[in-house]
Amino acid sequence: MQRNFTRTLGMMAMAAGLLALAPSCTKDLNQAPDYAATSNVVYADPAQIQQVLARLYATFAVSGQTGPAGSPDISGIDEGFSNYIRQYWQLQEITTDEAVIGWNDGTLPQVNTLQWNADNEFVRATYDRVFYEVGLCNEFIRQTSDANLSSRGIPAASLSTVRQYRSEARLLRALSYWHAIDLFGGGPFATETDAIGTTPQYRKGADMFTYVESELKAIDALDDTNGALLAPRGIYAHADKAVLWTLLTKLYLNAKVYTGTDRSTDAITYANKVLSAGYTLSPSYANLFLADNNTNNARNEVIFPITFDGTRTQTYGGMTYLVHAPNGRAYTATQAGIDGGWSGLRTKPALTSKFGSTTARNPSDVRSQLFVFQGQNPNVDTLGQFTSGPLIAKYRNVTSTGAPGSNLTFPDTDFPMFRLADVMLMYAEAVLRGGTGGSATQALAYVNQIRTRAGAPATTAAALTLNSILDERARELFWEGHRRTDLIRFGVYTSGYNWAYKGGVASGRDVETFRSLFPIPNTDRVANPNLPQNPGY
Amino acid sequence: MKHPYLEKLRFLCLVLIGLLGCVASAWAQSSTGIVTGTVTDAKKEGLPGVTVLIDGTTLGSSTNVDGTFTIPNVPAGPHTLVISFVGYNSVRQPITVTAGQTTRASLPALTENATALGEAVVIGYGTARKQDVTGAVEQISEKQFVKGQVTNPEQLVQGKVAGVQITTSGGAPGAATQILIRGGSSLTGSNQPLIVIDGVPVDNTGLAGASNPLSLINPNDIESITVLKDASSTAIYGVRASNGVILVTTKHGVQGDTFHVNASTQMSLATPAKYVPVLTADQFRDVVNQYGTAGQKATLGTANTDWQREIYRTAYTADNNVSFSGAAGVVPYRISTGYLYQEGILKRNDLKRYTGAINLSPVLLNGDLRIDLNVKGSWIDNNFSDQSAVGAAINFDPTQPIYAPNSPFGGYYESTNSSGLITLATRNPIGLINQQRNRSSVKRSIGNVQVNYKLPFVPGLSANVNLGYDVQRGRGTNLIPANAASNYFRQITTNGVVRQGGLNNQYAQDLTNTILEAYLKYERTVGPGKLDLLAGYSYQKFQNRNYSFDDNLADGTVYVAAVPSYSGAFTYLNTNVLIGFYGRLNYNIGDKYLFTGTFRADGTSRFNPNHFGYFPSGAFAWRLKGENFLKNSTAISELKIRLNYGQTGQQDLGNNYYPFLASLTLSNNTAQYQFGNQFFRTLRSDQYNPGITWETTTTYGAGLDYGFAGGRVYGSVDVYRRDTKDLLNTINISALAGLSNSGVFNVGSLTNRGVEISSNLDLVRGDKVNITINANATYNENKLTRLTTSNSSSDVGQPTGGISGGVGNNIQVNTVGYPTQAFYVNRQVYDSNGQPLQGVYVDTNGDGTINSTDRYRYKSPRPQWILGGGANASYKGFNLAFTLRANLGNYVYNNVRANSYYDQNSSGFVSNKTQEFLASRFTSAQYFSDYFVENGSFLRLQNATLGYNFGAIIKKGTTLTLTAAGQNLFLITKYKGLDPELNAFGSGAGIDNTIYPRARTFTIGLNLGL
To answer: Which residue among A37, A51, A309 sits closest to B663, beta carbon to beta carbon?
Structure first.
C-alpha cells in the first residue's frame, strides 16, 4: 500500500511537472529557418548589400530567385512569360508595326491587335513587374538610409560605396517609374518614406514626371562621398551617370506626351552629356546583339545593358524569349545558337518596307540583312501562323566569331536597353523639334554616322525631317523596345498610320485614342480603391 | 511566451489534481480482491467498451481498447459477473474472489445480437460506445474494408463513409491520394484531414521519392479507420481539425490469447481499363493530308504505331503478409511483416515495399498500468517511369516507328530538322520510358509508447502519457543518358570543352516528427449522470530537411553546382511546432441525455506573434431509445438525435513555414546577376504578413442515428453547415503596399452545406445465409461568400486552373457567390447539325466583340452527390462482396479533347489528335469553349470479391480462405475521356490533362490462420 501511495504521488508529481513545463515549452513556437537572412544582418555587411543591389537589377533579367524558374517574384502568371524585359518589350513591339506574335496564350492576341482590356494578364504582368521593382527599390533605399547604416555599424570606409548603391537604387526606381508614366500614364506612388502595408495613393503621369525629374537631378548633383553614381563606362552593367543622363533625355524628349510641355532643349542638354562621355559606335551593327556583346566592340556603344548568361543568369523571359521566339523554319536553331526555336515572333511589311522592299533584303544596309524572307509569306495574312511575315534574326546566341553561347537554351546575349545610336537619334530629333543647345549640322552628322555604320548612303540636310528620323529609328532600333513610345510621340500610334492586324483587322484600322495608354489592371483597382481607371477602359 | 490564458489553464489543472488528491485520501481498505479478464468476440479479438458488473453490487468496469478489464475492491467470496454490451448477447459468469488476490475470470466469447449500435468507436483521445457518441463519427473496421489489391490505407475506406471523398491521383503504384471531408474548408491552405495513427498525428507533407507518404503504411496491419467529421468530435484536435480527422488503429495482441499465426498471399494482374481514343495511323494520315501544310505532309511516316499499347503492359503484383499474435505472460503481442511487389501498368514502373510492425500491450500492476508500445517500419523501393510518356503516347505521330535506324537518340525515332532535334516536338514515349532510371528508397517508421496509469487511490482517475515519433527518409537518383532526346540540349562549355546531354542526379529529404502528449482522465458519477473529464497537453514538432545537390550531366559533369544556403550549408531545415492544451467533458444521464463539451487552445509556430487559437465545441444528444416508451420496442432498436456546434482551425500552408517572417531569399546559382566580370548571387526581400493568423471554421450540425426492425436496418442522417472565415488566401496586394503582387492573407470566407446519409440493411440473417447491404450518400454545396477586402464589381474573381495549351491559360475562377474553381468559359455556338462552330461564341455582354469578358461561370469540378454502397452475402463458407462508388454533378474540363485541333504551325513534326477532331474539326485552339466542359458523373464498381472459407481443414481452430477479387471492373459515365475521377481540390482539380490510367485488376488470395 505504501508503495502504491508513493507511486501515485510520483505520477501526480510527474503530471503536474509536465503541465508546469508546458508554458515554458511555448517558447518553441518561435521558429525560424536555419537558413534565414534577416535585414539586420544583411544590411550590416556591404558585401551583402551589394547582393541586394544586384537583385534590383536582376528584376529586369530573371523572374525569381531560382533560375530559370522557381521562387517567383510575382505570381498569378507564368514566371518566364511575365519577365520584366519580355513584357516591356512585348508591349512596346507587338502592339506596333514592327512585330507580330502567333501564340494563343491567354489574351496575347488582344495585345497583338490593340484590343486589350483591363483584365489582360500581359498588361497586368507588365504593371506588376514595374511596380514590383519600385517596391523592391523602396525597401533597399529605406534599409540603407544614413540612420540605418550608422545604427548597423557600416564601416566608414564602405559608406560612400553603399551610398552609391543607394543612388543606383534610386535611379532604377526612377527608370521603372518612367515605364509607369509611359505605359500607364501614372499609377500608385510610394517612396521609401511610406511604410510597407500602406495602401498607396494615385499619382498621375505629369506629377510622376515631376518626381522622377527632380529625383534624377538630385542624384546627379550628389558628390563622391554622398552617393555619386559611377562615372560613365566604369564597371560594366552598373547604372552609372550616363544611364541617368540617357533616362533624362528620354523623359524630356517625350515630355510633351507626358506633361503637355515640350522639353527638347533639356533633352539636348542631357544628350550632350552622354554624347561627350566617350562612347563610340560599334563598327559592327550585328555585334550589338550577339552572345559576346559584353566583351566585343558593342561594349563601347551600349550605355545600359541588362545582362544574361547561359549558365548563371537563366530565365524563360528576357533574352531566352528574344532569341527563341523568332526562331524557326528557314532561320535555323543552329544559326541562332540555340537548341530549338519557338516559332512565334515575326515582323510586318510595315517594317521591311522601310528598307525599300517587302520581299528582299536591301544589299546596302546591313540592318536589313537580319531579315529572313526565305519561305515566309512577306505579308502578315494571319496572326496565328508562323509562316505569315518575315523573320528577324537580330538577337542570337552566337559570338562575333560564330561560336555558340555557353548554353543552348539560355543565351549569353545581353539586352541593350540604352545605346549610343539611340541617344544620337534623340539628339537629332530634339534639334529638329526646335530644342536649343545643339545644331542641325551635328544632328545630320550623327544620323549619317549611324547610316554609314550600316553601310547605307548618307542622307542630306534637306532630307532630314522629323518623319525621316522616325523611320531611321525604326531601321536602327527595331525590336529594341522603343517603337510604341516613338509612334506615340510622333502622333501616329492610334490613328493616321496602320499596319496588319492593328485593331484586329488584317488590313489594319485606326483604334481609339485612349489606347496610347494601357489600362490600370482590374486586379490592382480591386486591391487599391485609390486608383482611378484610365479614360476609355 | 507567457500567455495569461495558459496560466489560467495550468492553474485549473493543478486545482483539479489537488482536488483529486483529497478524494484519494478517503480511500479505505477491507478484505477485498481484484477481478480481471478479457472480453473477446467470436474472432477472439478484444472488445472495448464492454460493461462488466459484479451482480448485486455497484462494482464494475468497462473494458479497454484491447477488451481487458479490472475491477478492484471486490469483496471476497462467490459472485456473478454480468457482461453486457449493446449489440452482443449478455453473459453471466460465476467467479470466486479471494481477499488480497487477483482473480482472472475465464470468459466465453461474446456473440453478436441483433444490432451493431453498441460497438465501441475510437474517438479523439479515447474510445466511446457508439450509442454515447454525440458527434458525427463513422468507424469502418476490418471486415468492412475494401478488399482486393489495396496499396494505400486510405483506399480501404474509399466509398465507405458518407461525407468523405477519396480520390487517387491516378493508377501508379502508391499514387498520391486526396481526401476531402465535407467539401473542404480551405482555398490556399491544405484541405487534407489530420491523420492519427495509433495516437501519433502523422506528417502528411510530401516526401521526395514517395508519391504518397501514406503508402508506407501496410493496410494489412490496420484494424479500423474512424472518420471524425463534425466539429464536436474534431475540435479536440483544434488547429488541424478543420478538414476532419481520420484515426487509424492498428491490430493488437489480445490479453491471455494463445499463439496465432496468420499468413496471406495475394497475386494480382492489372491491365489498362481503357485507352484514350486517338486517331489511328491511317485516320491520322488522312487528316494531315487534308489539313496539313506541304511541310507537314512530308513528315508523315509509313508505320502504324499504337503508342498507348506500346507504353502499357499487364502488370503483376504480389502481396504477402505474415503475422504472429498471442500473449506472453502479461504481454500481449502482435508481430507482422509484409512484402509487396507491385508493378504499374506503365512499363518500367514498380514499387517494392517491406513492412514490419510490432505491438506490445502489457497490463501490469493488477491492471492499473497499461502500456501500449507500437513500432512500425517500412521501406519502399520505387522505380518511377517518366509519366510524361502518358501524354506523349497520345500526341506522338502514329505514323512513325518506335526505332529509327541511325538515330543518335539511343535508336529511338525523334522529330528532327536541319538543326537536329526539334525541341518543340513531342518526345518518343518509349524513349522517355526506357531512357530514364529514376529510383528512390523511402523509409518510414512510426512508433509510440502510450502509458495509461489508473491512479489506485482515486477511483476513476487515470493518467496517460504518449511519446511518439514519425520519421521519414527519402533518397533517390535519376539517370538519363546523354543521348536521350528529353535532355539532349543540357550543355555546358568549360575551358572550351563542350559537354552535353543527360542527367545524373540525386535527391533527398528527411521528415522528422516527434510528439509528447499527456492527459488526465477522470470518470465518476455526479448527480444523475456519469461525468467524464479529460485535460491534456500536446507538443508536436515537425522538421523538414531538404538537401541541395549538384545538377549533373549524364557523364557526371556538374551542370549547375549545388547551392549552399544563406548559412552556408547544403541543407535547408524548416520546422513547425504545434502546442495544444485541451479538455473534454462528457456527461451522460441515464444513457438518454448526452452532453459533450471540448476546448482546445492551440499554438503554432507558423503564425507569430499570433501563435494561439482557441477552439471550443459543444454537443448534445438525446437518445430516445433510452426513454421508457422506446426501451422495449423491437421495431425501433435505436433512435438518437444529435446536435453539435464547434470551431476548428487550419494552419497548414504546406511548404510555407514562415509566412510572418521578414527575411531575404538568396538566389541560386542560375539566377545571379553580373557587374563587371563578376557574378553575384542576389538577395531578395520577400513578401511576408506579420498579421497572419488562423483560418477558422464554425460547424453547425444535426444528426439522427436510427435502428429499426430489431436492428436489421440502421444508420444515420447528418446535416451540416460549415462556415470558414479568415481564409488563408493568396490575394492580390495593391502595388507598392507589399513586396510582391500577391501574398497570403486572412481574407475571404466560404460555406459548405450538406447532408450525409448512411444506411445498413441486414437483408437476410441466418445460420447459413447472410446478406447485408450498405449505402451512403453525400450532398455537398460549396459557395464562396467573400474573397477580397473590397467588393468591386470590376472584379471577375481569382483566375485559377491552369490548363495545358498556351501559357497562363486559366479555365477556372474563384468568385463570390459561386463554388470554388467554377469553370469560366465562353458559350459555344453550334450549327443546325449540332456541330460546334469554330471561334463562334455567344456575345454574353452584348458589346459586339467576343473576348474574355464574355465568359461565364459554368458548373464546377465538385460533385453534388457522392454515393457509395455495397453488399456482402455469405452462404456457408462462401462470401461475395462488392463496393460501388458514384459521383454525380462533377464537371470536367477535357483538356485532351481541347488540344485536339489541327495545328498548321508545327514545323517538322505533327501531333496526333483524339477522335474528337473528326467531330469538331477545329483548326485553331478553342480552349475557352464550354464545349470541352463535360459532365463527369460516373458509377464505378470499385471491387467485387468472392471468397471461400475452407474452415478447419488442417486442425481445429484454423482457417483457410481463398478469395478472388476484381477491381475497377466497370466505369459507367458519359464522359468522353479516359476517366472523369480527378483531383478534388487544388491546382488541376477538374482538369483532365492525361492521368496515369487506373488499371483493372484481378486478384487471387489465400489466407491461412493457425
So the answer is: A37
**Pairing of β B938-949 and β B878-888:** antiparallel
Which amino acid is present at B963?
T
CA separation for the pair B97, A226 (Å, rounded): 97
Backbone angles phi, psi at B758, to 5 degrees: -135, 145
The rounded mean pLDDT for chain B is 88
Q: pLDDT tens digits for B855-901? A: 999 999 999 999 999 999 999 889 999 999 999 999 999 999 999 99
Q: Is the dihedral of CA A515, A517, A518, A522 positive or negative?
A: negative
Alpha-carbon gap, residue B863 to B183, rounded angstroms: 9
Stated pTM of the model: 0.86
| Cross-chain CB nearest to B575 (options A14, A31, A189) | A31
Handedness of CA A102, A106, A107, A108 (dihedral sign): negative
What is the predicted ipTM?
A: 0.94
The pLDDT confidence band at residue A19, using thresholds 50, 70 and 90, is: low
Smallest Cα–Cα separation from B614: which of B585, B581, B586?
B581
pLDDT confidence band for B508 (50 / 70 / 90): very high
Classified as helix, coil or strand, B527 is coil
Between CA A111 and CA B571 the distance in angstroms is 44
Q: To which residue does cell 477522470 refer?
A: B522
Element (H, E) at B256: none
Q: Which residues of A touch B537 (CB under 8 A)?
A: 18-19, 22
Chain A: give the shortest CA distance to residue B350, in Å: 30
Nine cell digits for residue A302? 551600349
Closest chain B CA to residue A122: B808
Q: Which residues pair with A469 in a beta bridge?
A: none
Distance, CA of A110 to CA of A120 (rounded, Å)? 8
Q: How many CA atoms lie within 13 A of B335 on its CB side?
A: 6
In DSSP terms, B130 is beta-bridged to: none
Q: What is the DSSP letter of B686?
A: P
Grid cell at residue B837: 462552330
Residue B141's closest CA among B155, B154, B124, B156?
B156
Q: Which of residues 820-879 of B touch A (CB under 8 A)?
A: 849, 851-853
B676/B667 Cα distance (integer angstroms): 19
The C-alpha atoms of residue B920 and residue A155 are separated, in whole angstroms, by 72
Buried b or exposed e, range B90-107, using 16+ CB within 10 angstroms: ebebebebeeeeebebeb
pLDDT digit string, tens, across residues B525-583? 988 899 999 999 999 999 999 999 999 999 999 998 898 999 999 999 999 999 999 99
Backbone angles phi, psi at B20, to 5 degrees: -65, -35
